[in-house]
C-alpha cells in the first residue's frame, strides 16, 4: 500500500513536470511561428526584432458613398416619378438626373424583400421565406427567419472594405425572440455589419410612438414623426463620420416605415390633397396610365387590366363612401409626399457638403406592390378581426372618426382596397400576390452623377432585388468575399446590372427568378412567367379561432397556374396556359427545381402557420396575434 501511494505521488509529480514542459514548448512555438498575417520579425530582444503594423483597410480609390433607399408599400403608379398623381419632387429630380428602371422586382412582401436585398440571395436561401416574427415563421431551413452567418450582408462586406455603415428606419429581419435589450445581438443591424442603427426592428410601428431602437438598446422616442427622427439621425451619422475621417466613404441604408400602415402624417401634408381624389380610383388609374405613357415607363399601347371584381365602380359608391375613401387617399398621398421631402433633406445635405456627385443612390419605391391590408372599407384604429363587424358598421365607424385618419390616434390607418388597385396601375393584384407583377414590380431610380452619362434615361432590363448588392460591389470595384469573420460565404445569387448604367441595350444577366409569398407563387425565365394564385378552400385561421379542432391544411394542388409572355404582355392580360401547355409544364418543373435549391419546401401558407400556432398555444385570445392576422388578411375577410 505504501509503495502504491509513493508510486501515485511520483506519477502526479511527473504529470506536473510534463504540463510545464508542454507550456514552455507551446510558448516557444508561438514565438517561432507567429500569426500567419504577421510580416515582421520576432527575436529574443527588441533589438533583434522588427515591428509590423498592417495598413488600415481602405476603400478603393475614389470609391463613392452609397445610399440605399427602400420605401414600404408603394405601388408602381403612386409616385409622380413614374406617372402617379402623388407629388414626389425629390424622386422626380433624382430620376431626371439619373435613370428610371421599369422592370425591377421585389418579393411581394417586406421581410423577404429586405432579407434578399441585404444579402444578394433569395429569401428562402437566407431562411426568410416568411417573416422573422415568431407567429409567421416555421421550423424549417427556409422558414425560421434567421439569416445565417454564411449569408453576409452588404453592410458586412462594405465595412470590411473601408466603409462606415449606417442604417435608419425599418429593419424587419430580427427574430422576435432576439429583439429585446437582452439580445443576443448577432441578428440586430449592428450584428450584421452596421456601425450604427436607429429605427425599429419589426414590420410596422406607430409613427409617433415607435418601438424605437438605437444601436443595441431600446430608446424613448421624442414625440416627433419617426421619419423626421431617422432623417436627423442619418445626417448626424454622416456629419460626425466626415468630421472624424474626411473623405472616407459611407454606406447609408435609409428604410423608413413609410408608407406602410399606419398612415400617419401631419395635416400640413395631407391637407395639400384635399379634394384632389374626388373623381375616384377609376379616373386615377386612367390618368396615371396616360402619364406613364408620356414618361415612357410603359409601352405606348398599354391597356389597363379590368377592375378587380372585389372593387366597386367609384360612381356607384354612396356619398358617404366617397367622402371617407377620398380622405384615406388624401392622407396616404400626403404621407408619401412628406416621405419624399425627408429623403430630400438627405439629398440636399449631400449636395450642400459637396458629396452628392460621388454618391451612388439606389431608390426602390416600394418593397412590394400597394397594400391590400386596409380591407375593402379602410381602417383607422379598429381591429376588424376582433370586432367581426359588418361592412356597414365599419363604414359608419370610419365616417364618425374621419378626423382621426392620419393622426396619432389612427393606430391602424390604411386605405381601402380600391386605392391599392389604383396606385398599382398599370398592373393587377397587390402586395402578397407573388404570382403577379402587381405584387412584385416596383420602380427603381439610380442617381450617380460621377458614373452615369445619360440623364433621365429609361432602362427596361429585367432585374431583381437580389441584384442591388452585386451591382453595388461592381460599381465600387469590390469582389464578394470568400470569408467574413472567418466564416466561408455562400454564393451571391443576384446578378450585376452595372453595364446597363451607360448602355440602354445591355443584356439582363438575371435569367431565372422564383417568387413565393403565402402560397402565391411564380417562376420567371427569359421573359416568360408562370404563376399560381393560392386560394385555400377554407380559411384556416378563421376555422381555428376559438375552437379545439386542428385547423385545415391548404390544398396547393388545387391552385390554377397561368402563363404569360411578359416580353409582349408586360401587365399580364393574356393568359397563354392553354395555348402553350408544354411551356407551362417546363416552367412548373423549373419552379420545383428552384424551390428545392432555395429551401422553399415545404410550401407553407400563412394560414397554416397561424392556425397551428394559434391552436397549439391558445394565442387566439392574444390581441397582438389578432393584430398580426389583420395585417396579412385577404381583402374583405372577417372572422
In one word, what is the shape?
globular
Unreliable segments of 5+ consecutive residues: 1-13, 17-30, 537-549, 617-639
Query: How does the helix and strand content classify structurally?
Result: alpha/beta
| CATH architecture identity | 3-Layer(aba) Sandwich
Could you tell me the number of beta strands?
A: 17
Q: Could you say what the CATH topology is called?
A: Alkaline Phosphatase, subunit A
| The CATH fourth-level homologous superfamily | Alkaline Phosphatase, subunit A
Signal peptide: 1-30
Domain Sulfatase N-terminal: 64-478
Organism: Flavobacterium taihuense
Protein name: Arylsulfatase
Features:
17 helices; 32% helix; signal; Sulfatase_CS; Alkaline Phosphatase, subunit A
List the helices and strands and how they pair.
Elements: H1 2-32, E1 65-70, H2 89-96, E2 99-105, H3 110-119, H4 154-159, E3 164-170, E4 196-200, E5 213-214, E6 217-218, H5 226-244, E7 250-255, H6 267-270, H7 281-295, H8 319-352, E8 359-364, H9 384-387, H10 391-400, H11 417-423, H12 437-440, E9 441-447, E10 457-459, E11 463-464, H13 468-476, E12 483-484, E13 487-488, E14 512-517, E15 520-525, E16 528-532, H14 540-544, E17 561-565, H15 581-597, H16 606-617, H17 623-631
Structure, briefly:
This protein has 639 residues and is an alpha/beta fold. It is built from 17 helices and 17 strands. It has one domain (75-631): Alkaline Phosphatase, subunit A.
